[in-house]
Amino acid sequence: SQEARASASAEVAAARSRLAALGETVTRIEREIAEAGEAERLARAALDDLPAESDGGEDEIAPLQTSLAELRARYEERARRHHAVAQAAAGRGARLAELERESGGWASRAGSARQRLAELAQRREEAEAAGVALDARPAELEARRAGLLGAIEREQRAHREAVDALARAEEEAKAAHAALKQAEGSLGQAREDAARLEGLMAEAGQAESHAAQQIGERLGAAPDEARTLAGLDPEAALPDAETVEVKLQRLIRERENIGAVNLRAETEATELDERIRDMQESRTDLLEAIGRLRRGIASLDREGRERMLAAFGTIDGHFRRLFTELFGGGKAHLALVDSEDPLEAGLEVVASPPGKRPQSLSLLSGGEKALTAIALLFAAFLTNPAPVCVLDEVDAPLDDSNVERFCTLISRLAHETDTRFVVVTHHRITMARVDRLFGVTMVEQGVSELVSVDLERAVRLRESA
Question: What angle do helix axes 57-135 and 137-219 make, rounded to 10 degrees?
Fold first, then answer.
C-alpha cells in the first residue's frame, strides 16, 4: 500500500507539473493570438485608409492582402492550438482531481494499515507475555506429574490387594450361595408338593359341596337319596357321564326355549317412542342446518366467482398493456380453460409477439417466455402494489434491448405505485439504471467490504459541475 501511495503521489506531482506547463503554453498562445488579432486589425485599418481609385493601388493592395491572409492563417492555427491545449489542460485537471481522490483513498488505507499494525504489535506483546508465563509451566507440571505418579502407584498396590481379597470373598460367597440355592430348591419342591395336595383336597371338597348343593336345589333331596330318586340300582354300575351330560343339556335348552315373561315391555315401548320422537326432531333441525349451510356455500361461491372474474379482468388488462410495452408491440391475453366455473378453471396465456401469430406460452422462446412471465408478474403486482418488491436475477435470460425495456418499466412502476424495488442482478445495464448500488468487494486478500454507490446523487453532481 505504501508503494502504491508513493506511485500515486509521484503521478500527482507529474500531472501538476504537466498542468503548469500547459498553463504556460496556453498563456503564450493567447498572447500570440492577441498579437495576430492586433496585426489583422492594423492591416484592415490600412486597407480601409487606401483611396478607392489610385494609380498603382492594386500593387500596394496585393501585398497587404497576402499579409492579411497569412495573419488569418496564423490566427486560425493559434486558435486551433489554443483549443487543443485547453482540452489537454481540462483533461489533465480531471486526471489530477482523480489522482488526488486516489491519493486520499491510499492515505485512508495507510491509516487503516497503521492501526492494524498497532493492534498486531499489541497482540504480539500479549502473546509474548503469555509465552513467558507458559515457559514456567513445564517444571510445575513435571513436579505435579511425579507426585501423581507416586500416588497412582500406591493406589494401584492397594487396589491389587483389595482385588485379591475380593476374589477370595467372592469364591467363598459363591460356594455358600450354591449350598443355599440347593437347600432352597429342595424346600421349594416340598412346599410345592404340599400346596398341590392341599389344592386338590380343597377342590375335591368344593366339588363335593357344589354337587350336594345342586342336588338339593334341583332334586330337593340329600345326595344319599339321589340314587333312589333316579331309580338306579345300588348294585348296578353308574351310567356313562357323557350320556347323562348330553341329556341334561337337552332338557335345559328345552326349558330355556319357553322363555321368561317380560314385565317391563310396556315401559320399554314408551321409552323407545320418546327416543324416536327426539330423533325425528333432531333430523328436522339437521336438515334445516344443512339447507342453511348449502345456501351459505352457494352465496360464498357466487361472491367468489364475482371477485375472481373482477380480479381476472383487472390482471388481464394490466397484462395486455405490460406485454405490449415490454415487447415493443404485439398482443397477449389471459384465458380461463377446462371449466366454465372460474373457481375450477385453469389459466392459459395466449401471446403474440411482434411478427408472430398467437400461440400458447409453451411454444415461445426462452427470452419471450421470460418477458411474458415478467408481464404477468407485474400485472398481478399492479392489482395490489406492495411498499417493497424484491426481484432476484429477473433480467438474467434477457438480451440488452429487453433489459432496457425492463428497466424502463421498473422506473415507471416505482413512480406510479411509490414502491421501492430491490433488484439482485449482475447485468451492467440494470446496474447503470438504478438509483443506488450495493455490492461487496475484497479490499485485501480475505477481507470483504460493503460498497454503496448513490448513482442519482452522482448524476446531480455531474450536472451541477
Answer: 70
d(C-alpha 436, C-alpha 459), whole Å: 11
Q: In this structure, are strands 331-337 and 346-352 parallel, antiparallel, or unpaired?
A: antiparallel
User: For 172-215, how does the pLDDT look when each residue is reduced to its tens digit (9 = 90+)?
Assistant: 888 878 887 887 887 788 788 888 888 888 887 787 787 777 77
Residue with cell 496556453: 26
Listing DSSP states for 389-418 in one string gives EEEESTTTT--HHHHHHHHHHHHHHHHHH-
For residue 101, CA distances in Å to 95, 104, 195, 367, 456 come to: 10, 5, 111, 42, 20
- Measured at the CA of 176, the angle between CA 174 and CA 179, to 5 degrees, comes to 110
pLDDT greater than 80 at residue 28: no
Helix (H, G, I), strand (E, B) or coil at 370: helix
Rounded-to-integer distance, Cα 320 and Cα 318, Å = 6
Cell numbers for 306: 364475482
Q: What whole-number distance in Å separates Cα of residue 258 and Cα of residue 261?
A: 10
Dist. CA 372–CA 349, nearest whole Å: 9
Beta-carbon contacts of 30 under 8 Å, excluding residues fewer than 6 positions away, are 82
Q: How many residues in the chain?
A: 465
Instruction: Decide the pairing of beta strands 420-424 and 388-392.
Output: parallel
Mean pLDDT, range 318-327, rounded to an integer = 86
